[in-house]
Amino acid sequence: MSKQPTIHTIDLKFQGIPNSIAAYLIPHAHGAVLVECGPGSTLETLEAGLAAHGLTPSDITDVLVSHIHLDHAGAAGWFAQQGARIHVHHVGAPHIIDPTKLLRSATRIYGDMMDKLWGEYLPVPEERVYSLHDNDEIEIEGLVFRALDTPGHAYHHIVYRLGDICFTGDVGGVRITTPNGLNHFQIPAVPPELNIEKWRTSIRRLANEHCAYIAPTHFGIFDDPDRHLRALQQELDAIENWMENTMPLGLPIEELRQRFTSWAREQALKAGLNDEQIAAYEAANPPGMSADGIQRYWKKYRHGQ
After folding, report:
1. What pLDDT is stored for residue 1 in this prediction?
2. How far is Cα of residue 195 from the mean position of the Cα atoms in its chain?
3. What's the confidence (pLDDT) of residue 181?
4. pLDDT at residue number 192
5. Which is it for the CA torsion 54, 57, 62, 64, positive or negative?
6. Distance between CA atoms of 141 and 60, rounded to whole angstroms?
7. CB atoms within 10 A of CB 273
8. Under 8 Å CB-to-CB from 5, ≥6 apart: which residues?
């Protein structure tokens, strides 16, 4: 990556689990950019990561978030308070300016665990928000990012291309390299906007970008984007097959969650992962949430077919 700007991967150690959520730090002449900032609950770890590179939160001039889910953009409001500009998909922008609806929805899901999991989610002042459309370019101290509108995981999802690297948020899936070199690919199929057809289109678009590196938020920078994207297509196929075999049974949601969790763990075990490694995947991509997303998608797009 010698021709690339310097990029540091900061492990936010979400819930004390390594390699589950990344923030990407890119220094420039007058501070630094963050691609993703993680949730409010990992701010202390993120500040320590910045300090390790001689930076403070006030040195962050810009935060680029792939989408507004709490594990990606939860700390954006806090960084806006420190003076950062927040770049986000134009559809997501109103929901970080006023996160009332977002937080109400998340609270229905997480209940009393909201604060422990995600910490504080502060609103972003409107004047600190920079709304993005497809192919917009963001120039920051000589760094030029291009925004790629890439729905599938969420309608309001942006992949950021910087030179030969694509920061793929969640549409790039979940891939955690284990100490013994294993790689396992997963699809975070969470509600409310899972759309398998749009996800396939986004993967094809990323393949046509011909990047040399791919950097999903979960987790790390990889130098085999073609293999990575092919594996994601295969994971979409596998989920679709599971869905078509399971959803017609009309199972209650609790049983559906149990079945999908068992299936996801079985897939991970087949890939050679141990219990600790599976825990990292489940922190980054809770399988019960994917069951909820699959059920919503099935009812909206496939029910009655």
Report:
1. 37
2. 15
3. 67
4. 87
5. positive
6. 12
7. 21
8. 26, 27, 28, 143, 162, 163
Q: What burial letters (b/e) apply to 277-294, b meaning 16+ CB within 10 Å?
A: bbebbbbbbbbbbbbbbb
Phi, psi of 126 (to 5 degrees): -55, -35
Look up residue 211 and give its amino acid: C
Tokens of 111: 């209940």
How many angstroms separate the CA atoms of 111 and 101, rounded? 15
Packing angle of the helix pair 253-270, 225-246 (nearest 10 deg): 140
Contact 121, 40 (CB under 8 A): yes
3-state secondary structure the chain: CCCCCCCEEEECCHHHCCCCCEEEEEEECCEEEEECCCCHHHHHHHHHHHHHCCCCHHHEEEEECCCCCHHHHCCHHHHHHCCCEEEEECCCHHHHHCCHHHHHHHHHHHHHHHHHHHCCCCCCCHHHEEEECCCCEEEECCEEEEEEECCCCCCCCEEEEECCEEEEEEEEEEECCCCCCCCCEECCCCCCCCCHHHHHHHHHHHHHHCCCEEEEEECCCECCHHHHHHHHHHHHHHHHHHHHHHHHHCCCHHHHHHHHHHHHHHHHHHCCCCHHHHHHHHHHCCHHHHHHHHHHHHHHHHCCC
Q: Which residue has the tokens 């890439």?
A: 150
**β-pairing verdict for 165-175 and 158-162:** antiparallel
Residues of the chain with pLDDT under 70: 1-3, 179-182, 304-305
| Residues in contact with 242: Cβ distance below 8 Å, sequence separation at least 6, in sequence order | 260, 263
Residue count of the chain, please give it: 305
Q: So what's the pLDDT on residue 114?
A: 83
- Report yes or no: 157 and 66 within 8 Å, Cβ to Cβ: yes
| pLDDT, tens digit (0-9, with 9 covering 90-100), for 13-51 | 998 988 889 999 999 999 999 999 999 999 999 999 999
